[in-house]
């Protein structure tokens, strides 16, 4: 099914690549995003969906001088988030806190809680502990994985361990396994590497095309989704890692982002440089594993996979995707021209 966007839009001042759901805000559907301007002072925008679901409201606007390449919200404190940034050819990462009375301040300034120093070369992403309160963080640069211990009260972060992927590998990103907090998947050119954080060693890998992004299925163990150049997305069962269990070819150019729904089995978003966001249903459930969370329960048959809708009225590449944790039928997308669009997927779900 093809269709344009009927969502709620919000325009950033400059170009942008990253957006994150504010999971710790349990009272609202909120997102946080940051800009990527080479010459201007960059901004972090805290956005909140209005109570009626008809408007995106900017709850906070904060200065962040450097270009923001990666941004992630803390899962247990709605005022805390991390950024990966660059200034010229140098990269860095930091954890920030939004001031408590930011709505009442004329010029609210972000407070730097900790800098994640020690990286060499291009820094790619910061990963928070998958859910709940924990002091662990992961940062990944082109050659290394760092495990950090963060102490917000003391405004400090310490390296717990680090390991190099080797000179022949260039890491580009990763995802923390929500089912096994000792495991992380790191994207690496034409493969995904799996690391055990206890030993800080690589345990396995899967070979695939050029991987731009990766996400774990939060509802099903062993299921991983990868965004691939020119071939849409691949779905992997890590118990059988030699070939993907599904290949969904819904993009006409590179696929840059992929996101599995936090509540409903089989719902996946993908975004790419064809200026399109695709909404998929792709079942990985066998007949003896049917769950109540599935949005496609049927007494006679189970749907396998289908493209539910293509949101195609973007003017630029889509790099950022984020499901709402509070309202899992809502997602936000971000295109490179700084356009945020919030959509509801309810109109595109088949009638039960």
TrEMBL record:
Keywords: Repeat, WD repeat
SMART domains named in the record: WD40
Domain of life: Eukaryota
PROSITE patterns in alphabetical order: WD_REPEATS_2, WD_REPEATS_REGION
Domain EIPR1-like beta-propeller: residue ranges: 5-280
WD repeats: 248-280
Family label: Belongs to the WD repeat EIPR1 family.
Protein's UniProt name: EIPR1-like beta-propeller domain-containing protein
Organism whose genome encodes this protein: Populus trichocarpa
